Structure prediction request, 501 residues.
Amino acid sequence: MTTFASGTTASNSGKDGLTRDALTVLQPGFTGTTAPDWLLRRLGEGLASVGLFGRNIASPEQLAALTAQLRAERDDVLVAIDEEGGDVTRLEVRCGSSFPGNHALGAVDDVELTRQVASELGRRLAACGVNLNWAPSADVNSNPANPVIGVRSFGADTALVARHTAAYVTGLQSAGVAACTKHFPGHGDTAVDSHHALPRIDAALDVLSDRELSPFRAAIAAGTRAVMSAHILIPALDPDHPATLSRPVLTDLLRGDLGYTGLIVTDGMEMQAIAATYGIERGSVLAITAGADAICVGGGLADDETVRRLRDALIAAVRVGELPEERLADAAERVRELARWTATATAGTEDEGRTDVGLVAARRALRATGAADFTPLTEAPYVAALTPVANIAVGDETPWGVAAELTRLLTGTQTGTFTGEEAGRKALDAAGPRRIVAVVRDEHRHPWMRRALDTLLEARPDTIVVEMGVPQAPPRGALHIATHGAARVCGRAAAEVIAGE
Prediction:
């Protein structure tokens, strides 16, 4: 085992300080459920962080063994994960999350409940050896057409988002897991997914200050250990560069005006907002130069070649004078500083045993319209899932809906998935005489989904509608249930109402 006192790299690694610093600022991913040899070798050379994704996780026991394998090579390694709970889960990628997401917590608006949920989620992460969570989302979902934030946000009200962001940071870090508040300076007022293209927010400075920045101020005041930048262009702050590559945004605004001193992590550099415009090597150099401290990469590019390319690009930029060596050294030291914090952070015990807190929160988040006149089902229904294309952050690996939970409560429940202009008619044909439960996700953003519901409700007015996205469309159906998210526990809570449990 290679031990790194106070987060420094071993002097016998055979690598010079510049090379070690260039590796230290990278947060790469990998494939498989055990650490590949190349990753272990890079940890020995100075790599200080590793990012985990759903593909790396099969069970809590396997994840604990994986993180132990990493720490056998470098005991202060930062093990990061994108575990928001709700729709974005990596711990429970194959079954759905035990915790509702931010939108459900915002709908309840109980900051103590949000703190408890984040604390329990953090406790589970820490038990598996994860010590940095790329969460929470502090974005104010002010644009209902937003294709990538949606239920990942606590809501559209700035003050609500701010107080729940602070509660989440406090709860997560009470478990000894560093929070990484995202996506700075705010991804809520966008109509473009930065996984696919470069979004733009044309808001005035006073609007940005009052709306977008308030939750980040709250997170900083709560002591968030990391902040993740957004790949978005905000001309009022910097007309030329997206936030991730912008010195006015990262250094002048976040460090200077907001007084933030912790780690700045980039969003995934292979996202098209960066990769398709600058390329990941050039983008990484510009990000560190602008004030970022850690380069997140590995969601799509997860191999040693990517690490080598980025390391070499940073080294070359220093040698030609484009990236000041002291800026790279400062970034590397912030990574090590966070590693030192995670090594000494102690988890609280007051919330241990609250393993049901996610289900409690999901039940409290439900909003049922028409419940007074609704008679719970006693016979197995047909669940018609009107399914949109999942955004990349959520992915299509994680099951969602109410069918599995209704099957548990009403044996014989059948289900089908429908998309497109013929969805309503095909769902009617498939359901036959059974009572229909139509499950939708962001009806307000999908005209075909609205028309499918029109078809179902015209033919079968007793159809039950479950909205598992942002409930912007008017409630309709014999019973309309808004779950404020598609986590497994949200589906269970809805199924309980439908079956009268």
